[in-house]
Amino acid sequence: MKKSALQKARAAYQPKLPIVLTGAVKAVEGRPTESVADQEAIHALFPNTYGLPELRFEKNATPAQGKPVNVGVILSGGQAPGGHNVISGLFDGIKKIHRDSRLFGFLMGPGGLVDHKYIELTAPIIDEYRNTGGFDIIGSGRTKLEKKEQFDKGLEILRELGINALVIIGGDDSNTNAAVLAEYYKAINAGVQVIGCPKTIDGDLKNDLIETSFGFDTATKVYSEVIGNIQRDCNSAKKYWHFIKLMGRSASHIALECALQTQPNICLISEEIEAKNMSLKDIVKYIADIVTARAADGNNFGTVLVPEGLIEFIPEFKKLIAELNELLGSHKDEVAAMNHEQLTQFILDNLNAENLAALKSLPESVARQLMLDRDPHGNVQVSLIETEKLLSQMVAAELAQSEAFKAAKGKFSSLHHFFGYEGRCADPSNFDADYCYSLGFNAAALINAGVTGYMSSIRNLVKPAVQWIAGGIPITMMMNIERRNAEDKPVIQKALVRLDGAPFQKFASKRDEWARTTSYIYPGPIQYFGPAEVCDQPSMTLKYEHQNK
Amino acid sequence: MKKSALQKARAAYQPKLPIVLTGAVKAVEGRPTESVADQEAIHALFPNTYGLPELRFEKNATPAQGKPVNVGVILSGGQAPGGHNVISGLFDGIKKIHRDSRLFGFLMGPGGLVDHKYIELTAPIIDEYRNTGGFDIIGSGRTKLEKKEQFDKGLEILRELGINALVIIGGDDSNTNAAVLAEYYKAINAGVQVIGCPKTIDGDLKNDLIETSFGFDTATKVYSEVIGNIQRDCNSAKKYWHFIKLMGRSASHIALECALQTQPNICLISEEIEAKNMSLKDIVKYIADIVTARAADGNNFGTVLVPEGLIEFIPEFKKLIAELNELLGSHKDEVAAMNHEQLTQFILDNLNAENLAALKSLPESVARQLMLDRDPHGNVQVSLIETEKLLSQMVAAELAQSEAFKAAKGKFSSLHHFFGYEGRCADPSNFDADYCYSLGFNAAALINAGVTGYMSSIRNLVKPAVQWIAGGIPITMMMNIERRNAEDKPVIQKALVRLDGAPFQKFASKRDEWARTTSYIYPGPIQYFGPAEVCDQPSMTLKYEHQNK
Predict the structure, then answer these.
(1) What's the confidence (pLDDT) of residue B383?
(2) In chain A, what percentage of residues exceed pLDDT 90?
(3) A13, A74, A136, A384: best mutation site toward chain B, by most B Cβ within 10 Å?
(4) What is the pTM of this model?
(5) Cβ contact (<8 Å) for B4 and A524?
(6) Are the beta carbons of A426 and B236 separated by less than 8 Å?
(7) How crowded is the C-beta side of B283, counted as CA atoms within 13 Å?
(8) What integer pLDDT is reported at residue A502 of this predicted model?
(9) What is the pLDDT of residues B458-490, one digit of tens each?
(10) Neighbours of A407 (CB within 10 A)
């Protein structure tokens, strides 16, 4: 690998750890836990790993000599900045327990465990990847670990390699699977612990004890850099409305964080749109009114942030998508045999009248995407729907009919952007570099403590890293029962944007001002070597959520 | 303006100057100049400003006391990182000549001169914008200064404000207009000097004495940052081909520079495609063959850089576009009165058979864009043509027919990106911050030297800034006669990518290796505070072009 100048300079960075993890630790048990909902059902599904206590690491004055551990690690799902630091932290952590400990990386995601594809991660390999973005050290994949046969097949290679513990780095789905795997290995006394690490740029895997998932900080900073650049262009040329869609499968945390960092004229928050029961027409009118007000001030330019998952939160489309998912999920085999024309007809014949009307209100290309393009899990592929263009076209049509816009002598030209892949593999910010390294190092401590079905938890993140709190929380604690592909399943509850939360409240208190005035902020690129106020700030979301704690 | 933490920290940066400009200077005349072509015709059009000598500033041991000057400044055309530093350099330069000198900024481009819209740029305003991206200090615009009435109208306000010199910061078109304006004001003895500054992210305004236009360095670094991030994602997920279109109206300098920085699997260079007389089908085959070869290695992923101006360089489409431009340019009034249907019919009725066939070979949406969407200068709007999608669709179709791809068990999924607005207003890199400040400071020295029709020239740019050479070159020297909108016009010759130049040669010697292997480089974001090898490197294009000088 030929390294860039920045990579070479950055390799020397020593990530910061919570002070407790720099010495010997003991795990202190907190109160037993309950799942966030559906306690009985979750308990029944996880008889061996339900109700475990929270854990917190404290200094251990009389540590026992550690024994060598063999650990496996898996990167699961979409990339997020910092994955390599989780692995290097884990490596350093198990080496600290005993120098003969070994780390094995399963290749291209959970599939590597099932297919017995792996490499041993030795010091020279690890050193190549410290503080770098990407998941390319072992690759990632989206194979779901759900079935007993997969678990048994995986156990073969774990036994062959003498692996005592498996660390799964993933989002809500992957950690759900980690919990199921932990329960299974515990139930059969396999002697393999399973530990999860909270990864996702989407920021929707969080709760009181998991303050943020890793990657969110870096990805939103990269998006905010380019949004800021676009805003500066917008404010220089003063002739375009830029519609900027931002990745984030479901929740609007990314859009909200970017809005707080860059102060655009408009930012849509899916969770609010759902709560206010806004129709697509309402959203278009909301945007068109701001465009008109700005035109009246002579400002025929602006920026609109659009969360990727928007369409699923507009109630009329949410209902439509729910019926589509249910319809297709419950006719899997017939659907698989249909061509596009047959599938279209099947859908049109079976949708209820209200949902059919919603479908028909969309431009044909969007309707077609909703009906025909689905991901391997059977979900609508919202990322393929060009919501940003859909909105600007509908706004243009609305403005063409508007007397007020005509009276304002308004002009409306739009440009479109979608940012996602640009940020998922960026070199981690100092925050993510430190947080990820700590998560991995802490996972080693959880392994040493002998627990399973836990997620690595590093808290108190708005404080300097030395003051961070390290521990573990039972994954089952985050679970509830949800309907997925026409089945009830135990899953980790997604953390959506809370409309009563401080980040949204801050945004809501400012957005009317940002809409009318031009109050853009230009954050610029992530810096690694400058003053702390430039290089070492956590996300605004994290700051606002935890500022009073 | 609420400033980001980086902006605040960056405000303190003191741009570096060539050592000669830090003291008093005298202008030393070099040899008289000739235009690059069409010498007689250019001489006839510029009787007062043709053939002037090159100028080079040297230390002046016996400087005269300078007199206050009033200077006007205009930002013209598309944004480029560093424009604010040209203005702050100019401000500091004229203040150094005399503390009572004043600077006026005309608003929203050349139109501000004609419409008498301006502000005085005072020290507090200048200080707000030092080392920042964007042109928002006074805005920019694309009004062309071409007509006598505009020049006369402009002269009114210049006289009213007592302005002795006008600095036009722009690309090739804007500097062409600067030369015409300089000639006119000289011819009528208006007493107003006109000085140009070489701006464009496209990198196509350069020659022996203008080594690079400003903004190219920063913009390509921003694009390379996000391309690198995408490549790391690509190499982690190993399942997509990313087609990445890069801004650059005509020349492929941006794509070439980004390729040198990031080492993608494929980068198309328009100039080579034209030189080799490649058809669209040839290009598609070239890409499909590499996709197939990688598939045979088990690598169903990769990256393709596509220069924005590609379509105009494919000979079959170049001919088509030339005929379209000529046809529509020579029937301006009739065309203006036509609706879309009539215009389409008019074009279909009048194109020659070969060009009609080329038009019909395109997907309908692309053909429609070629026919109907044109910029205010009457040119095809290549930036609207989604070449990246056109290519990936045609590659997919080619692969679907390919036995070799089938034999390799290849898979082909593509994702698309277009980067342009993301980089034009980025905070300038240290290089652009220094270069721009020097260009502006040097423009003040040219004003003090009493010359007109010159472009500010800072050379020796691969060396440390203290060793840079400062001077001026007559704009007419860069001109030739070209056909534009069905008229012969004197214009600055665009500097296209030279296939015998060192940057392309370097790329060409490596690309087969980069195509087959995965040799991505991940440059990461622009850094301002770190080690010199990270923060202070000029572009690879500049390095390779001048490494042996």
Answers:
(1) 67
(2) 85
(3) A136
(4) 0.95
(5) yes
(6) no
(7) 31
(8) 97
(9) 999 999 999 999 999 999 999 999 987 778 999
(10) 11
